[in-house]
């Protein structure tokens, strides 16, 4: 019943700010999407193995280059708009929410088309081979489809209703893998192998589009298109867009420079390392979302809680990265031979370095989310500018001398420098001391280096022991981290009591 007789029988009004603030719903959404990303990562990895084994070295290099280029297009297609529009999707005015949603999806669609044109213009104007231009023209449809699809994901995210998104992404990746197998059997050529990726994005877009219209979501887009809303969306997104664009450029510029300064064979070999390092990046970004929520909740009223949560997250990210490094470093070459074939074995050193770089990148991700939680995100773009300049300079020097190994070295040095500079900025701008557990991370670094070196020595002498060596390195690392009390702020094991 309502106080207004005229409203008797009317649909109750929901304030979606309350829905968005529900911590249990947020936790469920995070768990669902994390499981989905594990599935997508595993299926995507299997697909990459099939493609790499089916194509020639040059074609695999071209395939890797095309999708690296499309990844760079997120600079154009994202612009940070999704992050700022969330606030406008909350409230009790359903008409306002619907108009915002339709305008947002339309804007992202336009940005997707712009990204497609920019990618195609890049390969045409720089005189890339016709096979690359044609593959970009077809694979570029991924950008056109994925951009509005990501916009629909933001709509679901604003309600913490991520189950349908997770299912769509998992089934879409399954469809892509199935079509990749068919292509490998009947038509193993570059152009055919890009079609399953397009089919994946089309499937996800259709499922999300039908799903968002369900009344239970409470966010059915309007039929009205308010173009005037685009300007405030873009203006609000500028600080985030700059930092995001520079970060993407730092992450992808090495492959683009390698394609111009070396061969596609070199690009293909180098891209193998990214198949491993991308897994660390995926989980770091997935874990950063709930951590960011905790930091926002503690800022600025609970500085001690803010510090403790930051230190705990830093050690979790550091330990996870160290585990990946000690597991992969000794086994890189035999694992690459097993999965991708002998012709990709020379990429082992570059792959090792890229995994190290990804471990460093996880701490940078934490730093960015920390600055955002404290309202100081404008500080980060300056760090990214310095990192991009350093990365380009190092690649110009190292690629002509060391090819893809030089690009990998440039990546590690860049991430190490950016991470150091970022946490120096945090120490000087955030009025809370001791946010980063430097001593514990330094000890963890020494342990990881020692175990990686020892593991590589053993595998070099007894190649068949590599699975056991990697497993033993992980067990020893985690055990030493526990004995040396490096796991700051983590829950105590069962049976352990605090000293009175």
From TrEMBL:
Keyword Cell membrane: yes
Pfam family, one: Polysacc_synt
Location of the protein in the cell: Cell membrane
GO cellular component terms, semicolon-separated: plasma membrane
Superkingdom of the source species: Bacteria
Alphabetized UniProt keyword annotations: Cell membrane, Membrane, Transmembrane, Transmembrane helix
InterPro entries referenced in this protein's UniProt entry, alphabetically: Poly_Biosynth_Transport, Polysacc_synth
Name of the protein in question: Peptide-binding protein
Source organism of the structure: Mycolicibacterium sediminis
Phylogenetic lineage: Bacteria, Bacillati, Actinomycetota, Actinomycetes, Mycobacteriales
């Amino acid at each position: 019943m309502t106080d207004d007789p005229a409203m008797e029988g009317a649909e109750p009004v929901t304030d979606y700010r309350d829905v968005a603030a529900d911590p249990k719903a947020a936790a469920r959404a995070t768990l669902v999407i994390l499981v989905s990303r594990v599935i997508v990562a595993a299926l995507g990895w299997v697909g990459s193995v099939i493609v790499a084994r089916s194509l020639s070295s040059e074609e695999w290099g071209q395939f890797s280059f095309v999708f690296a280029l499309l990844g760079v297009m997120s600079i154009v297609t994202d612009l940070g708009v999704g992050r700022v529009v969330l606030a406008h999707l909350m409230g009790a005015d359903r008409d306002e929410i619907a108009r915002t949603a339709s305008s947002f999806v339309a804007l992202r669609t336009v940005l997707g088309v712009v990204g497609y044109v920019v990618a195609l213009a890049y390969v045409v104007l720089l005189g890339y081979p016709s096979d690359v231009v044609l593959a970009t023209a077809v694979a570029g449809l991924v950008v056109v489809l994925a951009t509005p699809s990501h916009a629909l994901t933001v709509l679901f995210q604003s309600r913490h209703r991520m189950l349908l998104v997770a299912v769509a992404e998992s089934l879409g990746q399954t469809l892509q893998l199935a079509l990749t197998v068919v292509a490998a059997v009947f038509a193993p050529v570059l152009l055919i192998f890009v079609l399953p990726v397009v089919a994946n994005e089309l499937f996800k877009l259709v499922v999300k589009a039908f799903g968002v219209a369900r009344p239970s979501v409470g966010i059915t887009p309007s039929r009205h298109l308010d173009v005037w809303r685009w300007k405030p969306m873009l203006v609000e997104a500028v600080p985030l867009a700059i930092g995001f664009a520079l970060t993407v450029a730092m992450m992808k510029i090495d492959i683009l420079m390698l394609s111009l300064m070396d061969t596609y064979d070199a690009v293909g070999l180098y891209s193998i390392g990214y198949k491993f390092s991308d897994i660390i990046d995926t989980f770091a970004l997935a874990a950063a979302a709930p951590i960011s929520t905790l930091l926002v909740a503690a800022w600025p009223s609970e500085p001690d809680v803010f510090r403790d949560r930051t230190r705990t997250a830093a050690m979790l990210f550091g330990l996870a990265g160290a585990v990946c490094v000690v597991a992969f470093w000794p086994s890189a070459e035999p694992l690459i031979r097993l999965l991708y074939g002998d012709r990709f074995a020379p990429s082992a050193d570059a792959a090792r370095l890229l995994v190290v770089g990804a471990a460093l990148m996880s701490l940078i991700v934490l730093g960015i989310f920390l600055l955002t939680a404290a309202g100081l995100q404008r500080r980060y773009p300056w760090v990214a500018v310095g990192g991009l300049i350093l990365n380009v300079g190092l690649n110009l020097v190292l690629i002509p001398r060391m090819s893809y190994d030089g690009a990998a070295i440039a990546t590690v040095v860049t991430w190490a420098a950016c991470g150091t500079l970022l946490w120096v900025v945090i120490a000087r701008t955030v009025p809370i001391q001791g946010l980063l557990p430097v001593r514990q991370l330094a000890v963890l670094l020494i342990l990881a280096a020692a175990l990686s070196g020892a593991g590589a020595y053993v595998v070099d002498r007894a190649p068949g022991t590599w699975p056991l060596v990697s497993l033993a390195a992980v067990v020893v690392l985690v055990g030493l981290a526990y004995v040396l009390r490096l796991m700051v702020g983590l829950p105590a094991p069962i049976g352990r009591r605090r000293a009175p």
